[in-house]
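User:
Care to share a sequence and structure tokens?

Assistant:
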Amino acid sequence: MILNISRSIAHGLEKQIKQVVVVENKPGAKTALRAKQVTTSKPDGYTILMATGSTLLLNPMLYKKLSYDASDLVPIALVAETPLIFTVNNKIQVDSIESFIKLASSKKANMFTYASTGTGTSTFE
């Protein structure tokens, strides 16, 4: 999703500044690869980063050593918000987080499995 948003912004920016804007997709390492590229690039305004909160907030909390210093990045615009929703199989008889927690905490519940985008990632990346 972030790549689609980046391309859409680049298209609009090209019209405004009348220059070509190249969007380079650099996936991997929970945004650390692209963050390093931006923080080590020449500070001429030609290299910018579209990233999620993982880059500035989660990565520094999760990893002792990063390939970039998050303090070298300054957020300049909130571009999009993505709601996260908690869902369960409709055969589980719960209708709220509270009722799910109660069920999961009960002795009747053997084990629940869950899906995740991974530690330090968001669904937006």
About this structure: Residues 20 and 68 are 27 Å apart (CA to CA). The chain is about 35% helix and 0% strand. Residues 2-72 form one domain.
